[in-house]
Amino acid sequence: MALEHAILVSLLEQPGSGYELTRRFERSIGRFWTATHQQIYRVLRRMEADGWVTAEEIGQGGRPDKRSYSVAAPGRAALTSWLRAPVQPEAVRHELAVKIRGAAFDDADGRSALIAEVERYRETHAATLGRYRAGERRDFPAGARLDVQQRLQHTVLRGGIAYERMVLDWLDDVLDTLRGL
Question: Boundaries of each Transcription regulator PadR C-terminal domain copy (predicted)?
Fold first, then answer.
């Protein structure tokens, strides 16, 4: 997937400025596709030059004008084409998994260092799971009637929650194994 596709989806959900897109990436889209502020602005300029998005200047009373982007017909056509194309499974590169396998060739001090690293890694995933659950409570309260867009967003979030739970279960297994050596 290209960043362009993630931006098009976000702009179809709600037009906005580059700053607003960056905030959306930090809050929700970043759960499955990350991008820096600079990347988003660079891609927006290219998409505007290609006719995929249009920008409207919006005055902000005493502050510099902002540009609010929306999807143009060529951008929607590009997204439709991408949505209908098959997706290839991603190849997984997992440095920590290689380190865990490599622990067989290290001494007890090295395994202790690896345990500390796995614990740190686990903490980051536990924090991510906490953020996902908080976002779910905030954005998808129990019993709320959700439209199609919200239902699909919630489905993606539930996938992220399931993934983080799986990673945490695996890391607990790794820690049990390493501590038992």
Answer: 92-178
Please tell me the distance from the alpha carbon of residue 33 to that of residue 52, in angstroms, as a whole number.
20
Digit-coded pLDDT (tens) for 60-108: 888 888 899 999 999 999 999 999 999 888 887 899 999 999 999 999 9
Tokens encoding 100: 């865990």
3-class secondary structure, 68: strand
Kindly give the interhelix angle for 37-49 and 18-27, rounded to the nearest 10 degrees.
130
Q: Are 132 and 160 in contact (CB under 8 A)?
A: yes
Distance CA 53, CA 10 (A): 12
Contact 41, 71 (CB under 8 A): no
- Position of tokens 């929306």? 70
